[in-house]
Design goal:
7-stranded mixed beta sheet; 4-stranded antiparallel beta sheet; 11 strands; mainly beta; globular
Length: 131
């Protein structure tokens, strides 16, 4: 059974940076698509970024981003460490949320909007962007 644990959240000023980590255990992450979602109270969980498995069909493990974070966030994976990262730069107050990583074992390219596709979730890490 795959387990995911996020870390790296915190309080940062607007324009600052944070790097979130998602560490997997119980199974290797390289066969999973991994996504980052975020959620604020009273709103639906929003897909931020995803990275396909290294064995995905058609996209060779490509990364995808929502329009709201494109150009500011970068997702990457270190298969040797069973870890996926989300580097967040130029942070804005509207990036404030609880950030979750999620995993889906699939041979197909990952999907950002597809909350229901992901079978495994971490507990979340709070990111607060405020001066």
């Amino acid at each position: 059974q795959l387990q995911l644990v996020e870390s790296g959240g915190g309080l940062v000023q607007p324009g600052g940076s944070l790097r979130l980590s998602c560490v997997g255990s119980g199974s290797t992450l390289d066969s999973y698509s991994i996504a980052w979602f975020r959620q604020v109270p009273g709103r639906e969980r929003e897909g931020v970024s995803c990275i396909s498995s290294v064995r995905s069909i058609g996209d060779d493990g490509a990364a995808y981003y929502s329009d709201s974070v494109k150009g500011r966030f970068t997702i990457s994976r270190d298969n040797a460490k069973d870890t996926v990262y989300l580097q967040m730069n130029s942070l804005k107050p509207e990036d404030t949320a609880v950030y979750y990583c999620a995993a889906e074992q699939t041979p197909y390219p990952c999907s950002i909007p597809g909350v229901s596709l992901y079978d495994y979730w971490g507990q979340g890490t709070q990111v607060t962007v405020s001066s």
